[in-house]
Amino acid sequence: MIKLGLRFEDAYDERRFVRQFTLDDLGRTQGAMVLGAFVYCAFGVWDWILDPTHWTTTFAIRLTVTTVALLPLTAVLSNVRAQTHAEIIYLAYCIIPGCVLSFIYLLLVSGFNHAAAGTIIVILFVSTLLPLRVLSLLAFCVSTWICFAVCQSMSVDDRAGLHFVNNFEIGMSYALALYAVGAREIRARHQFQTTRALQREKERSEAALTDLTNAQTHLVQAEKLASLGQLVAGVAHEVNTPIGLALTTSTALEADIKHFARIVKTGQIRRSDLTQIIGHLEEGTRLLFSNLTRAADLVQNFKQVAIDQTNEARRTFELQSWLQELMSTLGPLLRRKGHEVSISCEPGIMLDSYPGSLAQVISNLALNAIIHGFADGRAGKLELSAARVADDKLRIVFSDNGDGISDENLSKVFDPFFTTRRGEGSTGLGLHIVFNLVSATLNGEIEMKSSVDQGTEFIIYLPI
């Protein structure tokens, strides 16, 4: 049966197929069963035409079979528990009237002169309107044919060769029905296998997509932390200068205060000494204030950018001041490399978006320019501009005058893991993350223009 395609090797698949095959479109099948019961009784008219004497008996038999077997079997299929035995119910529905039909022909005078036609109609009904598999149909064929042959052998008929003709016609009908049902079952099994394969492939694809989404989330987070690490290094370097100056100034002030204390203890305070010490204190406090203020501003800006880059909350913010804060944290890293940075932003733009994702985009573009645009270590120029292009649309342009990108690589820069500096630690995810953040999170678009030795320009369109 497995080689013929009429059974699955996997028992679980076989059970699922049988249930689906027998219960698919159950309402239509029950409608056909009700129709079959009606037709079975309606053939009482045929009995009356063939034998007006005995037709009342045969009609009573037909009506009994209908009310006791056919209609109850049809109704029981509505029970969920009974549906697990649907094929057995179908088989009983077919065999009972099929076998009784031969007995009815035996009661009618010359009933077997027309028995083949009535039996063939039953075969057609069973094979076309009921979801029987080949084995079940074979059981129906064997049982009803045996009953037909037995009843026909008990009948009295003067026509020579009628037994052979009837059995030949019925046998051919059985053969055709078996072939048709077998072909239908094989097609249904192929369709079931295809559906199962597609379902399994869909589940594998969904699992792979989930894994990919999780991996992408981790990569984005790792890229954020990496850019924050770059910011930490740059800010630490930049903060070190004002803190160091403040420390030196405080040391000098401490020395002046100790000198002043010694003069006070001797009681020999000259006006010139007092004036000099006061001047030193004024200059020292001014330097302390300016350097500590500078350090505090750097720390505050870095704190805001760090919060934005690790927080996906949406909020409304003033773009110009936000860009200045962001670039002030990137400034130490860029100036350490000797790069010149210019910012141009139309004032008064209130952007309702995700500052963390936008900060990640601009930070990645800046770091990408440093690493790839000025790979030889030379100093360059970075420009960042933002302006409205419509009432509800913003254009941000980030450009550099670096090495540019070759024509063959232009179509690949946003692809994941594409990089020309893999041997130097690049992962090829920076611009891919930029593209995903702009298109998915910020609901915008990004374009790129570049040519070798002519620099690179990224144009981002965002909804305000």
Automatic annotation (TrEMBL):
<dbReference type="InterPro" id="IPR005467">
    <property type="entry name" value="His_kinase_dom"/>
</dbReference>
<feature type="transmembrane region" description="Helical">
    <location>
        <begin position="55"/>
        <end position="76"/>
    </location>
</feature>
<keyword id="KW-0812">Transmembrane</keyword>
<dbReference type="InterPro" id="IPR003594">
    <property type="entry name" value="HATPase_dom"/>
</dbReference>
<dbReference type="Pfam" id="PF02518">
    <property type="entry name" value="HATPase_c"/>
</dbReference>
<feature type="transmembrane region" description="Helical">
    <location>
        <begin position="31"/>
        <end position="49"/>
    </location>
</feature>
<feature type="transmembrane region" description="Helical">
    <location>
        <begin position="161"/>
        <end position="181"/>
    </location>
</feature>
<dbReference type="GO" id="GO:0004673">
    <property type="term" value="F:protein histidine kinase activity"/>
</dbReference>
<keyword id="KW-0472">Membrane</keyword>
<protein>
    <recommendedName>
        <fullName>histidine kinase</fullName>
        <ecNumber>2.7.13.3</ecNumber>
    </recommendedName>
</protein>
<dbReference type="InterPro" id="IPR036890">
    <property type="entry name" value="HATPase_C_sf"/>
</dbReference>
<keyword id="KW-1133">Transmembrane helix</keyword>
<feature type="domain" description="Histidine kinase">
    <location>
        <begin position="234"/>
        <end position="464"/>
    </location>
</feature>
<feature type="transmembrane region" description="Helical">
    <location>
        <begin position="114"/>
        <end position="130"/>
    </location>
</feature>
<dbReference type="InterPro" id="IPR004358">
    <property type="entry name" value="Sig_transdc_His_kin-like_C"/>
</dbReference>
<feature type="transmembrane region" description="Helical">
    <location>
        <begin position="88"/>
        <end position="108"/>
    </location>
</feature>
